[in-house]
Amino acid sequence: MSINRISLYHLETLIWIARLGSFGAAAERLNATQPTISARVAELEQRLGTTLFQKNGRAMTLTPAGRELVRDYTPLWEQLQDVLLRSSGFGQIRGTVRIGAGEIAAVTCLPSFIADLKGYWPELNFEVDIELTAQLIQGLQNGQSDLAFAAGSVAHPGLRSMPIGAAELVWVASPSVASRLVDGSALHAIPLWSLREHSPLNQVVRSTIARIGGSARQLNLCNNVRMMIDIVTAGDGFALVPQSMVASQLQYGTLMRIFPQERPDPIMFHVISRVTEADPVILEVLRCAKDIRLEPHETLPPRVLTP
């Protein structure tokens, strides 16, 4: 056994393969190629004189010796990471943090959050993917992302969610469409736009329309809030959207608030991470995320069309 020739990167590679479940995911996490990851594992096995992985169908699984090494080394690796970061006062954090985010969170809180973190740690890089909630959860589970910003909490034994605030909702339409909706009689003839069925926004839309007008015959679905806002601003229908995303349109009158008597409950947003997350960099970013608050932009009072 050539223990003196074992480097920290060999053991770090082993930890990430075990944590993320595949050579490919570990390669992505470590910004390496899959052949590089395979070569590191082969070197580690050669220098330890034991087999750490065995082929199981198309997957590679840990052998008993591999599981024992991961179990014994993981706390030492986490402690070393923590000691090194704390010795620099967390001033030398570097690497890449992969963030998945829903569209609303991405345009409300994420830009300032990332800018603040870059101010603290200039060498820390970010990869941000905008996805639907189902894809965000899947990304966390398969190791493609480290954190997710999503609507609603997540009831999953392997994930932990932390509330960061709520997005206020408002019904809007262009001035021409708003004038036709004053008494509600034209509700069934005007296109209604909403996010798709799995979205919490869609549920609020359907319950509100049922309460105030019975039904909307022309229900149109879109998976992008920005696109939906652009369509409604252009004069095609009405929609329920986050107030912070239409602040300027309401201020300048290109959109008008409709159904002012309706006060939909805001949509709660959470930061989601893995329960088993132990990377000190990710944990420090999570600690900073506790201070995030979703707040609407300061604007002039919006124009409201009332009967």
From TrEMBL:
<keyword id="KW-0804">Transcription</keyword>
<keyword id="KW-0238">DNA-binding</keyword>
<dbReference type="Pfam" id="PF00126">
    <property type="entry name" value="HTH_1"/>
</dbReference>
<dbReference type="InterPro" id="IPR000847">
    <property type="entry name" value="LysR_HTH_N"/>
</dbReference>
<dbReference type="GO" id="GO:0000976">
    <property type="term" value="F:transcription cis-regulatory region binding"/>
</dbReference>
<keyword id="KW-0805">Transcription regulation</keyword>
<dbReference type="InterPro" id="IPR036388">
    <property type="entry name" value="WH-like_DNA-bd_sf"/>
</dbReference>
<feature type="domain" description="HTH lysR-type">
    <location>
        <begin position="6"/>
        <end position="63"/>
    </location>
</feature>
<comment type="function">
    <text>Transcriptional regulator of the ttuABCDE tartrate utilization operon.</text>
</comment>
<comment type="similarity">
    <text>Belongs to the LysR transcriptional regulatory family.</text>
</comment>
<dbReference type="InterPro" id="IPR036390">
    <property type="entry name" value="WH_DNA-bd_sf"/>
</dbReference>
<dbReference type="Pfam" id="PF03466">
    <property type="entry name" value="LysR_substrate"/>
</dbReference>
<dbReference type="GO" id="GO:0003700">
    <property type="term" value="F:DNA-binding transcription factor activity"/>
</dbReference>
<dbReference type="InterPro" id="IPR005119">
    <property type="entry name" value="LysR_subst-bd"/>
</dbReference>
<protein>
    <recommendedName>
        <fullName>HTH-type transcriptional regulator TtuA</fullName>
    </recommendedName>
</protein>
